Amino acid sequence: MDKPRDIELETRQGRQAALAWQHDGAPRVLCLHGWLDNAASFLPLAARFEGFDLVALDLPGHGHSDHRHPSARYHFIDYLFDVDAALDALGWKDCHVLGHSLGAAIAAVFASAAPERVRSLTLLDGVGPIAGDVSKSAERLRRSLVRSRQSPSARRRYGSLDEMVEARRNATDLSLEAARLICERSARKEDGGYVWRSDPALNWVSPVLLTEDQVLDLLRHVEAPALTFQATQESGWFSPERIAARKDALARGTHLFVEGHHHFHMDEPEAIAETIQAFILEHEVATAHGKQT
Questions:
Q1: Is the pLDDT of residue 286 over 80?
Q2: Cα dihedral sign for 47, 60, 37, 227?
């Protein structure tokens, strides 16, 4: 596809930035990135797409989008309202949703909450959100309150973009090329150095998580056809049994395994691009609430 345009969406949830490859009349695809990533994480995949009206959001607190107000928090469920508002700002009644990691969790729950707006669902290394252990509810709430009393730590300043790339790679499985794409969009020049654009509040401790039973109920109510890709490297957050149960909960799910790490869609985009495009085109049909026609 052509090079993307930087766009800004003025939504009822605040200003959201995005990268857009817009083609009028083409299938509409909304891309949602992972935690502490940004819209640039979809650049390698989008480069292999042809003939799509594709928009990759910067979620609030990430990339070039606004941070939440200091009195607000980054509750998982609030991202659903951000996505809903972004679709309205784009003028999209519905679309295909493609998500990675946190973005995949948001996409799945949004499809359950607003089935009339999701034509198809593609999930990259994530089937629903992290669930909480009910026996540790009080412990989590206490940790969250303690963390909220602490003053935000000073932003680390880096002497070069290369230093930021190295720091990001030390904390993730990102390749050099992938880390640079994300860091170039996440970095801001300041006082002769570079700092992260992302909101430090994203590192908070969530006081409440959905239970696994709640997650499964939400997944059972996903009406859209779903395509999932799971990296062969096991997740530290989900057991194989939990992942299998979540996949089973998707009534119209197709599930594939891919070789690679958590960011396989950046490192080996050619391995999945054709499959995703074919899946989206197969389901590019008129959608009415509760009924696929």
A1: no
A2: negative
